[in-house]
What does this fold into?
Amino acid sequence: MLSYLTALNQAAPEDVAVLLEGVVERSPWVLEKLHTRRPFVDIAALQKAIEEMIWGLPLESRKNLALAHPELADTVAAKTNMTSESHREQDRLGLLSLSKKDQQRLRRLNTDYRNRFGFPFIIALESQSDLQSVFTEFEKRLASEAVDELDAATAQTVIVARSRVAELAEAYALSHPSEEFMTTKNKTNDTGRQSITNPAK
It folds into this structure.
């Protein structure tokens, strides 16, 4: 039975993005050329290729990628066009079932952030321990310089993508047991959540 990496390495070019559905929020176009980076020798190599493709996008494309993300606690998007991955990540911290006070606070932050930077606030929720840590990081980044914040949003997008790749591989391993994934599970957990900065800097 094929492992996830083997399936990805052997897939038709147009099917590679399908196998990675949900890794990059509502933006399959980002991974359209990923097949040219094959073969991937391990999950870390796949994660690195995705990271480099995201950072390699022109500034305007990186902004379009940021615009594809839902705002935090967007209950309307949660019922319509939020990916299952985002829904799960937000729900874990209670962002889709906030108190009225926290809803008002987050609505103000969402509005102020979008007005200042032109795209929604992006944060790797898997790396946040609780709701208060999200608010703290939100308020901190709201004070950032506009020139730096797109890089911050891109870095968070990369962390999310790496984490989701690791989760995809582990989910595939459960339904397609193979020695490769039994031995790399811990490795993908570690590489999926590390802090990412622009390698070009």
